[in-house]
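re: ur question from earlier - yeah i can do the single chain one, its not a big deal. heres the input i used so u can compare w yours
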Amino acid sequence: MEPELTGQTRKKIRLGDLLVEHKVISEEQLMLALADQKKSGRKLGKVLIENGFTDEGRMLDVLSRQLRIPFIDLKYYKYDADTVRLLPETYARRYRAIALDSNGDDVLVGMADPTDIFGYDEIAGILKRPIRQALVRETDLLKTIDAVFRRTQEISEFAEELGDELSDTDFDIAALSEAADITDAPVVKLLQSMFEDAAQVGASDIHIEPDETVLRLRQRIDGILHETVMKEKRIANALVSRLKLMSGLNISERRMPQDGRFNIKVKDKNIDVRLSTMPVQFGESVVMRLLDQSHGMLDLNQLGMPEDIATRFKRIIQQPHGMALVTGPTGSGKTTTLYAALSLLNHPESKIITVEDPVEYRLPRINQVQINPTINLTFARVLRAALRQDPDIVLVGEMRDHETVEMGLRAAMTGHLVLSTLHTNDAVSTALRLLDMGAEGFLVASALRGVLAQRLIRRICEGCIEDYTPQTHEWAWAQQLIDGRADTVQFKHGAGCPHCNNTGYRGRIGVYELLEITNTLADALRRNDPAGFTRAAQRQKNFRTLAQAAMANAEAGITTIEEVMRIAGDVNTDAEEFDLPLAPIEVDDVLAED
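and the output i got, formated as C-alpha cells:
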C-alpha cells in the first residue's frame, strides 16, 4: 500500500540543529561530528551514526516528521524497474535518490537526504516534472539501484560491437590483446561491464561457456546460476585471450587447462579473481571465482552461527592441541569458517602456518603456503616442512590422502592445534571417513576434538515473503523432522519481486551440526566400532543434525521447506508411512562459495 503523501517543503534545514532541537544528540556531539566531517568530507548523518551518537532509525524518524514526508522501507516496496530508470543511474547515485512512482503529473522520489536542495532541483530538472519526496535508507537505496541498473544490456551492446569488429578470417587475437590502446577496445569494455554487473549483484562466480552458435555468460548468485545468452560467439576467443593475459597465462595454449589469478578494483571493491580455463568442444570454457578482499575477514560472531554452537566451537579451537575439522561439500562455506577461526586465534604469541590450495585470502601475521603439485609441493610435503617451523597452529586446506591425514593427526597429538576440512556430508560420518582413509582408530580417538559440518541455505526475500501451505510430500518431511508439529507451524516462502529477481530468495544463512568427541565416542573409535560411534553421536546432548538446524530456520520463517529438502537428502523419511512418492534430493547441490 502506498504511503499517504503530505505537502513537500524545500526550506533549507540544518540536520545537526534539527537533531539537537529534538534532543537526539547533544551540542557537544554535534561539534565533534562537524569537526570529523570537515576532516573526512563525509555526510554529517553518516558521521553521527558511525560515531555512535545516534542510530539511523531515530534520525530518519525525526527527519520524516519535521519535513512532513513519509518514510518508505525499500525492502518491502514493490517498485517498477522502468519507473526507477526514469532517473539515470549517474544522478541516482550522485544524489542518493530513486524514482519510485509516476502518476503522469509528478514523480515520487525517495531520497536518503531530503534536505539536499541542490539535488532536489537537479532531479526535478532531469525528470521535467514536479517531484514528491519520500525518505529512504541509503543502504537500501544503493542495493535497489544495483539491482535495477544491471549491466546486462551494456554487456550485450559491447558484445555486439566487438562481434562487428571481428571477422572469421583476419582476426589477430594477440595483436588486439597487446594493442597500446587496449583500454578503448570493446573487449575490455565488455569485461569491465561483466565485472561491474557481478559486483553489483554479489555474484561469487562468472562462467564463460562457448556453445556451437552462441556464447553463454552465467553468474552464480546465492549459489544458483543465472544465464545470459549472446549470439556473438566469435567474441569468445577475444574474451578468453584477454583474461589469460590478465592472469599471466599462455594465450597460445588452447589444448590444456590453465589456472591463474589477478586482482581488479570494481566500484571501490578490491576483488581477487581466480581463473580456470578448460578446453571444451567449441572452444575454451572459463570459470572465475570472485573473492572480495574489501570486507576483511569475518569473525565467528558474524557467521550467523547459533550461540550455543559458536560457544562450543570456540572452546574446541582454543584448546592448545588437537584437531578440529570443518566439513561439507564444495561450496558450503568451509573456508570462510576456517578463516574466521584463524582471525580469533591470530595473536602475536601464536605462530600460525597455513597450507592451502589456493591461498584465497591474505592474512596478516600468518605464514600462508600454496601447494603446487607440478613440482611435488603437496599438502603432505608442506605440512612436514611446516612442523619444522615451530608452529603453534597449522591449517591444512584439505585432508586429501592417507599421508596428510596421518601427519595431521600425529601433529595434533604432539602439541599442535590442527585445523582442516574434509568433504563429507555430515559431522558423524567424518570421523569414520578418517578411518576409511587408513588412519588408526587410536590416533583419531586421541587427536580429534570436534567436527563442524555446515551448509548454506537461501533466505526468503523480505520484500515478498508471504504465508505458504506446504505440498503433501513437504508435509511429510516437516512432520518427520519436527516430531509431528508441522501442523502448528506457519511456513513462509517468497512470491518473487524485483528485489530478488523474482526468485523468492535473497541472501544466505549458514546451518551447522557440531559433534564434540567425548570419551564414549573416542572409545568407539578405538574399538573401530562405526555403528556404536554413530549411535553414541546421535544420542549426544545438544546434538542437532543439519536437517533439523535447517528446519528450525523454516519454522522461524527465515527459509523455505524447499531449501530444507535441498540439503536434507540424508533424512530418513519413511515414504510408505505417508503413502507418498518422495521427490529425489541432491545432497551435494551446491548453494554458495567454498
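The radius of gyration is 28 Å. not sure if urs matches, ping me
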